[in-house]
Amino acid sequence: TDSSSPLLLTGTASNDLPWAVKLEDKAKYDAIFDSLNPVNGLLSGDKVKPVLLNSKLPVDILGRVWELSDIDRDGMLDRDEFAVAMFLVYCALEKEPVPMSLPAALVPPSKRKPITIPGAMPLIPSSTSTKESHQSLPPVGILAAKTPLTQ
C-alpha cells in the first residue's frame, strides 16, 4: 500500500519522518556544540559564526544555512538546530545545494509541530492585546540576531 500520499495531505507525516541527521552524525555535531560552551543549551550567532565560516562556504550560503537552522528564529541555535546547521554545511561542502526552505525530514523532532491543534489557538480576536504585543517586539533584537551573518 502506498501510504505516502495521504500522509502528506494530513500534515501529521512530519512527526513520523525519520530525522535526516543520523545518530552518529548527531554525536559529532553535539561534540562540536558542547565545545563551543553553550549557555543554557543555546549558542549565539557569534559563537556559531566562526564554525560556519570555517567551512569556507560562501557567505550567502552560510546565511541561508543560519536562516534554515534557526528554526524558532530566536537568533540562537540549540543542540538540534546546530545539528541541522552542521548537516546543511556538510551537504553544501559535498556540492549539494542548500534548500531554500527546510525539508520536513530535516526539521528536528523536537521542533516539529502538528499543523492543526484543536483548541490551541484562541478563536476570539482581541484587538487590543495583538496591537500591544506587536509594539513590544523590539526590532533591535531581530536585527541583532541577523547581523552576525550578514557582516
UniProtKB/TrEMBL annotation:
GO terms for cellular component: cytoplasm; plasma membrane. The lineage of its organism: Eukaryota, Metazoa, Chordata, Craniata, Vertebrata. It comes from Todus mexicanus. SMART domains: EH. The keyword Iron-sulfur does not apply. Residues 25-113 form the EH domain. Residues 126-151 are annotated as: Disordered. One of its GO terms (biological process) is endosomal transport. Coiled coil: none annotated. GO terms for molecular function: calcium ion binding. This is EPS15 factor. It holds the Pfam family EH. The keyword 4Fe-4S does not apply. Residues 57-92 form the EF-hand domain. Keywords: Calcium, Metal-binding. InterPro entries: EF-hand-dom_pair, EF_Hand_1_Ca_BS, EF_hand_dom, EH_dom. The gene is Eps15. Signal peptide: none annotated.
